[in-house]
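Sequence and structure are kept together here, with a separate record for every protein. An example record follows, reproduced without changes.
>
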Amino acid sequence: MDSPGSEQPLSTTERRELDSLRRELAELRGQRTPVAVPRSGTGHSTVRWIAAILLLVLVAVLGFSAVLARFASSEILDADRYVETVTPLGSNPVLQGELADQITNEIMTRLDVESITAEALTSITETAPRVPPAVVGLAPVIADQAESFVHKTVESLVSSDEFETLWIQANREAHQALTAVLTGNTRAAVVISDDGTVSISLTPIIDKVRAKLTERGFAFAEKIPSIDKSFVLFQAPDLVKAQRATSLLDKASGVLPWLTLLAAVGAVWASPKGMRRRAGALVGVSLAVAMALLAIAISIGRSLYLDAVPADVLSPQAATVLIDTLLVPLKTTLRAVFVLAVVIAIVGYLTGASGSAVAVRSAYGRGADAIRVRAGGRAPNRFESVVAQLRLPLRAAIVAIATMTLVFWRYPSGAVVAVTVLVAVAALLVVELIARPALSGVSPGDARPT
């Protein structure tokens, strides 16, 4: 029997609970540590915070500019990317209807079926006395029927697989012209007007319509003249003045992401010691704010553009479809960076010393410990101990890899963003789970016998 003064040895569960309480106490003490900074260091911390805030503002500005530069460079100078973006427009019902209307109107205007028919009917009434002169009044009806026939023929063409090839080729030629203007290479057949109107030539499509009409026995098909008609894609009045900016923009698209990353690292480094995790979270907040502002700017610019497009050049419905399609790559990149920024902010917050972050980590630790108790407590092995020691560098490496993946992926899609974020979160959880046995404070002597 033990004497009254003797101490009972702690069980494994009691030892674990004691170690957990000690860790929470240490974290709470560490949370109060910045308050006890000597008065002589207050000015130094203030200077460091000012520098960090300036760098955070720079992060937002550079991030905003980097996304815009990457979009402009890829859409303006990358022919394959541009064609890939506009290819789905060829199967869009609104755009198909707009093309059918414009082509039909152009053909009927040049052909003037009503005048030709009226002349023919008048000639018939003069040479055939039994034909009443009233038949001349059928000319408008015949013209309407002819227009309907032409329109249906055009619609059948623009909704066919054959049109997709014509659409891609026309847009590739238009992009070559756009590049020619911006780079000063005027050897290409430029189809960009002085007011910055970018358009595609409809001549090959109209020639194909003429052939289709001939195949269908349309009597007036041979009278359709050669038509040089263009379909407006978008208008940018300052586009022809952008030659000097093109080269700079192309180079900036590759440099700005690195400068953004450098400014983010500088903001964390410049912040006072003990506050660098908070500064890391603020980097994410800065990028998120920049992307929110960019989204607002895109919305305002889109509205201004749609208001400025003349209705006789492009219908409001078609203009909306075109601008929304051209903005898809920009919005995708914006969302990717925004998601990345939120992840950085959350990771920085959860690893910080705030009371709520400590509470979240403590709750997670208690849950992990409870799982280990059910699975059978044991001493950490060497690998788990090493992971526990390198936990912070491993976290930083995972976040850095995810950041570089999204920033430097040439054209990140929604799937790329989702997979990258999920893999990064899963990797962070795996690190925590592996390191948990070593962080729980269970000594080899406390391990349960097997």
In short: The chain has two domains: 12-31+43-74+245-446, 92-242. The two ends are 28 Å apart (CA to CA). Strands lie at 197-201, 230-235. The first strand starts at residue 197 and ends at 201.
